User: Fold this.
Amino acid sequence: MRRIFLLAALLCAGRAAAQRLDPDAYRYPIEGVAGLYSANFGEIRPGHFHAGIDIKTDGVEGKRVVAVMDGYVSRVVVQAGGYGRAVYLTLRNGTTAVYGHLQRFREDLEEHVRSERYRRRSNSVDLWFRPDRYPVRQGDLLAFSGNSGSSGGPHLHYEIRDTHDQALRNIVREGIIRPVDSLPPRFVKLHYIEIDSLDGVCHRRTPVSYPIVRTAEGRYRLSRSEALPVGRRGYFVAEVTDRRNCVQNTFAVWRLQASIDGDPYFEFRIDRFTHALSRTCDAVSCYPMQLGSRNEAIRLAQLAGAPDCFYPVMKRRGVIGCRAGERRTVKLCCEDDCGNRSHLSFEIVGRDGEFRAEPPADPERRIVRPAEAAAFEAGDFSASIPAGALYDACHAKVEAGQLPKVDSGVVILSPAYRLLDARTPLFKPIRVSIRTAVPRALQLKASIVVRNYRGAAARIGGHYEQGRVTVETRSTGDWFVAADTLAPTIRPLFAAGADLRQAKALRFRVGDNFSGIASWRLEIDGEWVPCDRYPMQGTLVFHFDRPADGRTHRAVLRVRDGSGNSKTWEGSYRR
Assistant:
């Protein structure tokens, strides 16, 4: 099977047609920083490739963020997760610059955002503008760097997209950003997986792992000197990572090449991708290994659901092998986005015997193919898998799952069911439904929960209706129904009646035991006011937007979790 996702093929086809950019036309996006980085383009994250670069802001907020080229502000976003506060700048050359995790916008943008939040009574807004509303010149102030959204520390997320299709570009490879980097990538570990196909399903032997040692800068060898025994069909997985000068962070590699006896047979390269393809990082990587690795576990083979555009060279889908006693030489070359390279060379030898796949012992296990939809039903459990959900064909059957330990406030309401292994990645969500008796008092709080690959319980969501709880999810593992009965917690970060005339904001610490914070509403003297959530810090913040008047003010904060449990706090302060 050559292709699963026709859309992916069309999107990949646009890669060759992407315009060449003039790196010197772009200005650096932020002022007053050392020019160090904490993440680069294409890093394999859970469920997505990293879309841009992360620029360190020296551990502080409030650095000036500026226009990299003439253009106009086409969009501003305020949200709790993702990029938090973000500015989208449409540029005159057909690209869009995106700035994320901002502290605040420049004054005219901030005032407009504030007025729209009040008008809509909404803590989150997504505002779009015409070209004549907020035109900018290169170097104009746009915002100030911060730590909003899903940010683990102060930094600026910066990316360049093609405006017409929003495809993301590798701005270091294109020379728009030029880090100081003389350090070659690192080979960390090599894995060999022997395979066999039966009825169109790829069966894999348990991976065999080999440590790697460095012999010189950019030169690596296996810790063993003997040739690696291989079968007639198999592929390698390389765990690799990269470093930059002056920082301790790890980075993604740009390219990984492989040849056998001098014949190039594999190349992974990440120059450009669309958001529709971002999730396919789970097919590019060896997903079961990637889950437990701090490195990038890149599969030197192509799954059916891995788009061609990431593989400029691909022969025999990356599968190699030897006849018994035959010796061959494999060479790997890993390159980072700054042009530094590392090399690994080793011999393989064909071993006697051959791995032969056997049909599953349980005849009720069905084959599920990526290009076909499938439905399952057993007792009180049902699931439907749409075409294109899987990256690879597999066997599936509804089985009894294992219930995990849960918080004391979580009530388990059904047995656990398993259909797919917890380490099975999904491109599209599947529909899961469980029939179970739920007491009336818990029906609005009931949801599907999964026991994930770590053995921990994670709420997915869904709703209860006519005796069933149903959800669409990409989370695989052991599914069951549970109800969260505990309300969120609220703790003001100020004393009762505190004098806040010199403070810039009203701050609260909020948390939830299981379902997560879903919504919040803050009123001051009976009036709704906008309140920012910083999920990584566990805080809700109202930035004072009116002058202090020396009066005592009454605040009421209501917080609701994902299961509908709510908590209300009331108190006063002076300002």
Q: What stands out?
A: The longest strand covers residues 186-198. Residues 107-120 form the longest helix (14 residues). Confidence is low (pLDDT under 50) at residues 1-7.
